[in-house]
Structure prediction request, 108 residues.
Amino acid sequence: MPKYVNKDTLADTLVSTLHLKNKRQAHEAVNALIEEMSSALESGGVIDIAYFGKFYIFDRKSRMGINPVTKEKMEIQATRLPKFKPSQTLKKRCNQSLEEDPAQSNEE
Prediction:
């Protein structure tokens, strides 16, 4: 079964790995990390984590679209979206199980 990761599981990992005194400290660390990353993206910055990947902002230009209900043309406003580009190391780790057991990829 695939592992599910959220703030709580990250805090548990910090407690066990760094031997923190309590889970509250771990939650504060996770929240500080997420706040710093969010702030960097909000200001248009880039988050580059070695061996993991890069988070950046993609500026989507405004464009013309069609309202599916009225079939009327309308302008879709420009938006800024966070994007993620995985590192080569992360890509290899994700595909490693496929290389070990090719039958597993055919089951899905």
Observations:
- The chain is about 45% helix and 25% strand.
